[in-house]
Design goal:
- By secondary structure, this protein is an alpha/beta fold.
- The protein has helices at about 20-25, 80-95, 105-110, 120-135, 150-155, 165-180, 200-205, 225-250, 270-295, 300-310, 320-325, 380-395, 420-435, 485-495, and strands at about 15-20, 55, 60-65, 100-105, 140-145, 185-190, 255-260, 265, 330-335, 340, 355-360, 395-400, 440-450, 470, 480-485.
- The chain has one domain (about 15-495): TIM Barrel (Alpha-Beta Barrel).
- It contains 14 helices and 15 strands.
- The strands form four sheets. The chain has an eight-stranded parallel barrel, surrounded by five helices.
- Strand 2 (about 55) and strand 3 (about 60-65) form a beta hairpin.
- The two termini are about 15 Å apart.
- About 50% of the residues are buried.
């Protein structure tokens, strides 16, 4: 294909690729010694998308797995990437990817999480996976834990609300860094850890410490104290992980991974109340990078803990450890922007740390993703996030996820035409290029779900992000065959030209 004139040219050596996660793609949920993990018990395809398949055993005083017989757990089979990864990576290489992000399933390496010795079958699988990527010219970018805390660590220890988790995590990190450090040079610690207060089960492996049979909402059984403790424990683990990484893989880079869409939150008006409510809403995202990238607990958070009497327990040396071991770069996802209006009774969408705002429509961003999701499509928001992170932290940035989910069907073997996806891709990349021109040190761009995977947000297959279609449906049917969409060729062309 002849190269076209490029108006938006990206820097030499820019990393182009795509991102998936083990828990949304691999399937084989109990294969080769693996045991259940967080997303294996999460229910999709229903209105109760985050009602977990757990029950409380009053005799033992703990939660245990209890899957619903009438629910479809699509993640159990995923798209069978576990057995089809060579075929799928060939398709990714066909677009010219020079990098590919996935995650290691913690429960494949340590099935229960608290063992001392790893599962060799799990280690061997990732050896083969990373070697295949490298043979196809793709640098592996690996997330250490991506919404997949081993279930035993959740039901026995209550996940990251328990400080013992730090030792289990470090044992896991030590094994994978030593095993894969020569093959994998780009790592991420916790996927979208700032979802801890909104999705504690997925992001923190935290089940409620108390059981309320009258509660209609699982979330009300969480205490602010236990979630604050989970925050501190993950931040200590992040710092210890970074320290170990730099000792074992000095020629690599390790970053954090943040759900960045809520950083692109605009005030509803110039009313100072709206502006201050937006400031609080954005702090819910900034606080995690303040800790992981700048090494400090923000003052507003300390005040909040003090006012509520919910300070987490800390050990001597924790704060110094966090201060001295910050991440090398900031990775983030971006899908949409938000607008915040002050409301004394409101609670901003992202979580429960600060209240006083509510989401309202943006009259200036009218384009939305299709029903039923209807997320605002705001390409300028990704530039806003890049510029904000640059001004605040002055660190390299990596767009780890960007994409749009569409409800698509393959008919009679015909190629799926997806101009909405192509336009979304082009418009966002133009804004990324503008941010780079402004001085943002952007190292790479990964499209989320370059092959259709199970949605972590809704547990669905019909919310398709891929350039490659996978024949699997919400009811679990489908023969899993892969076919290329029109957008595949547009992304291939952009990568070949290193720009648009």
């Amino acid at each position: 294909m002849a190269k076209k004139e490029v108006t938006y040219r990206f820097p030499e050596g820019f990393l182009w690729g795509g991102a998936i996660a083990a828990n949304q793609s691999e399937g084989a949920w109990l294969a080769d010694g693996k045991q259940p993990q967080a997303t294996d018990v999460m229910v999709g395809i229903t209105s109760d998308a985050h009602t977990p398949g757990l029950k409380y055993n009053e005799e033992k005083g703990q939660w245990e797995m209890a899957l619903y017989e009438d629910k479809v757990y699509l993640a159990h089979e995923g798209i069978d990437f576990y057995h089809r990864y060579k075929e799928d990576l060939q398709l990714m290489a066909g677009m010219g990817f020079n990098c590919f992000r996935t995650s290691i399933s913690w429960a494949r390496i340590f099935p229960d999480g608290d063992e001392t010795a790893p599962n060799e079958a799990g280690l061997k699988y990732y050896d083969d996976l990373f070697e295949t990527m490298l043979s196809l010219g793709m640098k592996p970018i690996v997330t250490i834990t991506h919404f997949d805390t081993p279930l035993r660590l959740m039901t026995r220890y209550n996940g990251w609300s328990n400080r013992q988790m730090i030792d289990f995590f470090m044992n896991y990190c030590n094994v994978i860094f030593r095993r894969y450090g020569s093959k994998v040079k780009y790592w991420l610690t916790f996927n979208e850890i700032n979802n801890l207060y909104r999705m504690p089960l997925a992001a923190g492996g935290v089940v409620p410490a108390r059981f309320d049979p009258q509660a209609k909402d699982f979330m009300v059984c969480y205490s602010e104290q236990e979630l604050n403790q989970a925050l501190h424990n993950t931040m200590v683990a992040n710092a210890k992980c970074v320290k170990l990484f730099h000792a074992l893989i000095p020629d690599g880079m390790i970053g954090c991974m943040i759900a960045g869409s809520h950083l692109a939150t605009y005030p509803a008006s110039c009313d100072p109340q709206d502006v201050l409510a937006t400031l609080d809403a954005r702090r819910n995202t900034f606080l995690f990078t303040d800790i992981m990238a700048a090494g400090v607990y923000p003052s507003f958070l300390r005040k909040l803990w003090k006012d509520h009497g919910t300070e987490p327990a800390m050990e001597d040396g924790d704060l110094e450890l966090i201060r001295d071991n910050t991440v090398d770069y900031i990775g983030f996802s971006y899908y949409f922007s938000n607008v915040c209006k002050a409301d004394p009774e409101g609670e901003f969408f992202e979580g429960s740390l600060t209240k006083g705002g509510k989401k309202v429509p943006n009259p200036y961003v009218t384009e939305k993703s299709p029903e039923p999701w209807k997320f605002p499509i705001d390409p300028k928001g990704i530039r806003y996030v890049l510029e904000e992170y640059t001004d605040r932290y002055h660190k390299p940035l990596f767009i780890m996820e960007n994409g749009i989910g569409l409800d698509e069907k393959e008919e009679d073997g015909q190629m799926i035409h997806d101009p909405v996806r192509v336009k979304f891709l082009e418009d966002h990349l133009k804004e990324v290029h503008k941010a780079i021109e402004d001085g943002c040190d952007v190292r790479g761009y990964l499209w989320w779900g370059p092959i259709d995977v199970v949605s972590s947000g809704t547990g669905e297959m019909r919310k398709r992000y891929g350039f490659v279609y996978v024949d699997r449906h919400n009811d679990g049917t489908g023969d899993l065959h892969r076919s290329i969409k029109e957008s595949y060729y547009r992304y291939k062309e952009i990568i070949e030209n290193n720009g648009l």
